[in-house]
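Example 3.2
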Amino acid sequence: MKAFILALTALLIGGCTPSAPRNTGVYLLLDTSGTYNEELNKAQSIILYTLSKLQPTDSFAVARIDTGSFSEKDIIAKATFDDRPSSANVQKRAFADAIKTFVDHSKAASYTDITGGLLQGIEFLNEKNSGRKAILIFSDLKEDLDKGYVRDVPLDLKGFEVVALNVTKLRTDNYDPREYLARVDTWRQRVEKAGGRWRMINDLERLDGLL
């Protein structure tokens, strides 16, 4: 009898434990520097694909990477989708419209603050308390900071997945491929050292494994 009571108590306590969130949060960073601004049509396709995969209660934000990207002002569109599918679809259409407007009128940025964008993405997804957290980086991964910006700060990416997308090669990479390989590996090491999981997808025709 005593064993039965103990087992029942454990079951009741376990049943009261709040379950871990199962929603997904995605934060996409858009590099708009130099010729990358001309690649935004590809980024728009990725965003539309992501919208099609996200479910009610999931969160999504898209932000540009420019001079100083650790700022709310760089978020182009953001939403946590309603648990009513009809309302979520309205939100997704508004999100897609905001992205189209940005792509149609975007001007090339002078700098590329990838670290600042990552910090903003971490903060956004932690606030959303997403069960699955993914930061997507649409960039050549060449960070270029304006004078006075300090980004030698630790990242906390435990529980995060970081996916680099469309990592194109710079002109100098053609002369020395080691530069490209080193740039990618530096970011991979930095993400993994911070506790995150790193992936890279360059074939944008095969996004089925993105989310």
